[in-house]
Amino acid sequence: MRIWSLHPKYLDIKGLLAVWREALLAKHVLEGKTKGYKNHPQLIRFKQMKNPLHAINHYLSEIYQEAERRNYRFDKSKFDKRFQPAQMTVTRGQLAYEMKHLLKKLEVRDKARFEQWRYLKKIEPVVLFKVIDGDIEDWEILQE
Asked: Residue 59: pLDDT above 70?
Protein backbone atom coordinates (compact mmCIF):
# COMPACT_ATOMS: atom_id res chain seq x y z
CA MET A 1 0.00 0.00 0.00
CA ARG A 2 1.36 3.43 -0.97
CA ILE A 3 -0.60 6.51 0.01
CA TRP A 4 1.59 9.20 -1.50
CA SER A 5 2.31 12.43 0.33
CA LEU A 6 3.40 13.87 -3.03
CA HIS A 7 0.92 15.95 -4.96
CA PRO A 8 -0.87 13.61 -7.40
CA LYS A 9 0.15 15.78 -10.37
CA TYR A 10 3.52 13.99 -10.26
CA LEU A 11 1.98 10.54 -10.74
CA ASP A 12 1.63 8.75 -14.04
CA ILE A 13 -1.69 7.09 -14.87
CA LYS A 14 -0.66 3.80 -13.20
CA GLY A 15 0.32 5.68 -10.06
CA LEU A 16 -2.89 7.72 -10.04
CA LEU A 17 -5.07 4.62 -10.44
CA ALA A 18 -3.08 2.78 -7.78
CA VAL A 19 -3.27 5.58 -5.20
CA TRP A 20 -7.03 5.85 -5.79
CA ARG A 21 -7.44 2.10 -5.11
CA GLU A 22 -5.08 2.19 -2.13
CA ALA A 23 -6.79 5.18 -0.54
CA LEU A 24 -10.19 3.52 -1.02
CA LEU A 25 -8.80 0.42 0.70
CA ALA A 26 -7.48 2.64 3.51
CA LYS A 27 -10.95 4.18 3.85
CA HIS A 28 -12.47 0.70 4.19
CA VAL A 29 -9.91 -0.19 6.85
CA LEU A 30 -10.65 3.00 8.78
CA GLU A 31 -14.38 2.25 8.53
CA GLY A 32 -13.79 -1.25 9.90
CA LYS A 33 -15.08 -2.85 6.69
CA THR A 34 -12.09 -5.13 6.08
CA LYS A 35 -9.98 -7.48 8.15
CA GLY A 36 -6.71 -6.96 6.30
CA TYR A 37 -4.26 -4.06 6.37
CA LYS A 38 -5.44 -2.88 9.82
CA ASN A 39 -1.90 -2.19 11.01
CA HIS A 40 -0.35 -1.08 7.74
CA PRO A 41 2.30 1.64 8.31
CA GLN A 42 0.75 3.92 5.68
CA LEU A 43 -2.36 4.19 7.85
CA ILE A 44 -0.58 5.36 11.00
CA ARG A 45 -0.76 9.05 10.15
CA PHE A 46 -4.47 8.82 9.35
CA LYS A 47 -5.24 6.86 12.52
CA GLN A 48 -3.49 9.58 14.55
CA MET A 49 -5.92 12.21 13.33
CA LYS A 50 -8.83 13.38 15.50
CA ASN A 51 -11.16 12.15 12.76
CA PRO A 52 -9.39 9.67 10.45
CA LEU A 53 -12.40 9.36 8.12
CA HIS A 54 -12.48 13.10 7.46
CA ALA A 55 -8.76 12.94 6.66
CA ILE A 56 -9.00 9.99 4.25
CA ASN A 57 -12.06 11.46 2.53
CA HIS A 58 -10.20 14.75 2.12
CA TYR A 59 -7.26 12.82 0.66
CA LEU A 60 -9.58 10.95 -1.75
CA SER A 61 -11.13 14.24 -2.84
CA GLU A 62 -7.67 15.54 -3.81
CA ILE A 63 -6.95 12.41 -5.86
CA TYR A 64 -10.38 12.71 -7.46
CA GLN A 65 -9.72 16.35 -8.41
CA GLU A 66 -6.43 15.41 -10.09
CA ALA A 67 -8.21 12.69 -12.05
CA GLU A 68 -10.81 15.24 -13.15
CA ARG A 69 -8.05 17.65 -14.28
CA ARG A 70 -6.78 14.86 -16.51
CA ASN A 71 -10.26 14.03 -17.81
CA TYR A 72 -10.39 10.64 -16.06
CA ARG A 73 -13.71 9.59 -14.61
CA PHE A 74 -13.25 8.28 -11.08
CA ASP A 75 -16.39 7.43 -9.14
CA LYS A 76 -16.98 10.31 -6.71
CA SER A 77 -19.62 8.30 -4.86
CA LYS A 78 -16.74 6.27 -3.37
CA PHE A 79 -15.90 8.96 -0.82
CA ASP A 80 -17.89 11.19 1.51
CA LYS A 81 -17.80 14.78 0.29
CA ARG A 82 -19.11 16.07 3.65
CA PHE A 83 -15.66 15.75 5.24
CA GLN A 84 -14.18 18.50 7.37
CA PRO A 85 -10.89 19.57 5.73
CA ALA A 86 -7.96 17.95 7.47
CA GLN A 87 -4.49 19.33 8.13
CA MET A 88 -1.73 16.75 8.40
CA THR A 89 2.02 17.11 8.40
CA VAL A 90 4.71 15.51 6.28
CA THR A 91 8.45 15.93 6.59
CA ARG A 92 10.70 17.25 3.84
CA GLY A 93 12.70 14.03 4.16
CA GLN A 94 9.57 11.97 3.49
CA LEU A 95 8.70 14.01 0.41
CA ALA A 96 12.25 13.65 -0.92
CA TYR A 97 12.19 9.90 -0.29
CA GLU A 98 8.84 9.50 -2.03
CA MET A 99 9.98 11.56 -5.03
CA LYS A 100 13.09 9.42 -5.38
CA HIS A 101 10.93 6.30 -5.16
CA LEU A 102 8.47 7.67 -7.73
CA LEU A 103 11.23 8.72 -10.14
CA LYS A 104 12.52 5.13 -10.21
CA LYS A 105 9.05 3.99 -11.25
CA LEU A 106 8.62 6.78 -13.81
CA GLU A 107 11.99 6.09 -15.42
CA VAL A 108 10.63 2.67 -16.41
CA ARG A 109 6.92 3.41 -16.94
CA ASP A 110 6.72 6.99 -18.26
CA LYS A 111 9.94 8.53 -19.60
CA ALA A 112 8.31 11.86 -20.45
CA ARG A 113 6.98 12.31 -16.93
CA PHE A 114 10.34 11.18 -15.54
CA GLU A 115 12.11 13.89 -17.56
CA GLN A 116 9.50 16.46 -16.51
CA TRP A 117 10.09 15.88 -12.79
CA ARG A 118 13.64 14.54 -12.43
CA TYR A 119 15.26 17.91 -11.64
CA LEU A 120 12.42 19.26 -9.53
CA LYS A 121 13.73 21.43 -6.70
CA LYS A 122 10.57 22.10 -4.68
CA ILE A 123 8.33 19.10 -4.13
CA GLU A 124 4.68 19.87 -3.45
CA PRO A 125 2.59 17.64 -1.19
CA VAL A 126 -1.05 16.68 -1.44
CA VAL A 127 -2.94 19.82 -0.39
CA LEU A 128 -3.94 18.54 3.06
CA PHE A 129 -0.29 18.09 4.09
CA LYS A 130 1.74 20.86 5.69
CA VAL A 131 5.47 20.38 5.06
CA ILE A 132 7.71 20.45 8.12
CA ASP A 133 11.42 19.89 8.62
CA GLY A 134 12.48 16.36 9.34
CA ASP A 135 13.82 13.09 8.01
CA ILE A 136 11.93 10.19 6.49
CA GLU A 137 8.88 9.37 8.62
CA ASP A 138 9.24 6.57 11.17
CA TRP A 139 6.34 4.63 9.64
CA GLU A 140 7.96 4.46 6.18
CA ILE A 141 9.10 1.04 4.98
CA LEU A 142 12.38 1.83 3.23
CA GLN A 143 13.04 0.26 -0.16
CA GLU A 144 16.27 0.25 -2.08
From this structure: yes
Count of other CB atoms within 10 angstroms of residue 9: 14
Q: What is the 3-state secondary structure (H, E, C) of the chain?
A: CCCCCECHHHCCHHHHHHHHHHHHHHHHHHCCCCCCCCCCHHHHHHHCCCCHHHHHHHHHHHHHHHHHHCCCCCCHHHCCCCCCCCCEEEEHHHHHHHHHHHHHHHHHHCHHHHHHHCCCCCCCECCCEEEECCCCCCCCCCCC
**Whole-structure pTM value:** 0.94
Mean pLDDT value of segment 49-64? 97
- How many Cβ atoms from other residues are within 10 Å of residue 38's Cβ? 11
